Amino acid sequence: MVAATVLLAAAGGLIGFGLSGVRAGAVVATVVSVDGPVLVHREGVPRPAVEGLVVYDGEQITVPAAASAVLDLPDASRAELGPETSLWLHHEGAALELRGGFLAVNARHRPADRPLAVRTPDARAEVLGTRFTLGADEAKTHLRVAEGLVHLLRIGDGAAVDVPGGHRAVVADGDRAGLELRPSLPGTVLLIASYDRAPTDFARFNRLVGDHLLGRRLRHLGFRVETKAHADVTAGDLVGRPLVIVSFSEWGVGFEQSLERIGLRAADVPVLCFEPMAFPTLGLTGGRQGVDYDWGKGPTPVDFPRPDHPLSGGLAGERSDLFFDRPGTFGWARPGRAAARIATLPGDGARAVLFAYEAGADMIESVAPRRRVGLFLDPSQVGDHSEAAWSLVEAAVEWCAEPPHGQPGRAER
Length: 413
Known about the structure:
By secondary structure, this protein is mainly β. The protein has helices at residues 200-211, 213-220, 255-261, 387-400, and strands at residues 4-10, 13-16, 27-35, 39-42, 45-48, 54-56, 60-63, 68-72, 78-81, 85-89, 96-107, 116-119, 123-127, 131-136, 141-147, 149-154, 160-164, 167-171, 180-183, 188-193, 224-229, 244-246, 271-273, 293-297, 302-304, 317-319, 329-333, 340-345, 348-357, 372-375. The protein has a 19-stranded mixed beta sheet that branches. A seven-stranded mixed beta sheet has the order 21-20-22-23-30-29-28, with helices on one face. Strand 4 and strand 5 form a beta hairpin. The two termini are 21 Å apart.
């Protein structure tokens, strides 16, 4: 029997599991475990969710930031609720109503006349026994299929596509041009962070990006995210990842040594690096600060000489609305000749704030085993409002997670 795994990160959506025979007031779930101050709202009264607590029809579960919960459903399926999640459980129509947050469901194989149905504001997915991830917000639905086949339907006009294993599809209800179908690696993104001697701005960035902003964005794209301190990461943590993200660090804490210790430069895994100091360690640039990489004072505009490249995030020309909305530092690099320079400093196309190496391309004294991206984000300025900057981050994530040569992705962790 094939299990079906559903990951749903959404601002809103409905999930129907075909749970027949559930009556008003009936048991619709049982709490298996909780981590943090999770609440069950019963008759308008919030109470702590504890192991073994029975959840009835119409009740709500809320999970705050940095918390999680696991539920058993009546058909022996299991649901995991992530941070910042509000979930209602119903006996009519949709069994689960996710109005915000992250949901992972390991569902049993279903009969042909009762397919697993997943509804978001933009789309409906139907599946019989497979593994896939689904993320949604108010604008888009992202589907990633690990194995099997998922029938994805756009609610607005009824357009549909069958998404096979190792592929992803994106639905935007306002976009009638068609459904995007591309190869993609499923699994859990690893974020390598540094909390050693972090200045206030850096500590804020790591907290927001690791636990909130980037985590939320990745979940909306259909990914899990695991954050680990650089000193705790091992080479084994890299295996089977769709993407490894290298966050910011302070000087002199052993961050580069940690990346070297785990062999990230040669690892057969896509890498997105936000830290210019780590560029030489990963072979993305030479090691001369001030020549191969450095920081400068902002604000400054940024040029996009290759708007047709998928990493441009749809941006073109000169932009001043990325990371530098107030004075601060910005990072740049001079990558190798084989690198694609996506965003550069005005008047100097050799200095890039966003660049990439295709898998197999020559880097600095090594070859990129998988796709590599260098992208600077100012830790004191990136916020939830920086939509242009986040469009680049999301484009980099999607590009990195696409398998080499357009082949379906198989590895998963």
